[in-house]
What does this fold into?
Amino acid sequence: MTGRLPLLAKEFRVIDETSPLWLCCSSLLDIALCFDHSDETYSWNGWSKQQIGNFLQSLPSRSSIVVGVWETLCEKEGNTEREKLVIGLVCEVINGEVHSVRTFDALSADGLKPSDQLEPGIDDAQEIIRHTERAVAPVAWALFMEKSTWDEWLFASVDESAVLEKAQQLMELAHQGRCVLMRSKAKYN
It folds into this structure.
């Protein structure tokens, strides 16, 4: 290792790993651990450790990041569609390092409705943000999208070692109406 740009705090915590949402979130944690234990040149599917570190360092000293991803499922009877939350994740960031990660289910103790009742819409998005800010930290960024768009953004790369402008890709997806990206304009201490 050439140097350590920590992404995860030394005393990193996982909260509510028994949640049904944790299965998808745990694979993201595996990826984060690979980044955290690698040097600054490490990249994966267009993501670089330096990009991620710079993003985390740009956040207010105490903040949170919220990610909600829904998948549209077709029910066999009547060919009706329903949307199911597959990733509901809150990362607590302190001084540029992720200190904890939890699913939306952890917010139910604060009064958020169960994750299987959350819908992709502005009302539930605002509720998720409100509960996150009460239970965790002020929300710096919140991202809500369909799973196919998430997969396209998360896994997009030219080749395994090429680094892409993931922030620019995300902004393009937001401009196309394929995701909702919310940034807090509040000042934090």
Remarks:
- DSSP finds five helices and eight strands in the chain.
- The longest strand covers residues 81-94.
- The chain has one domain: 8-183.
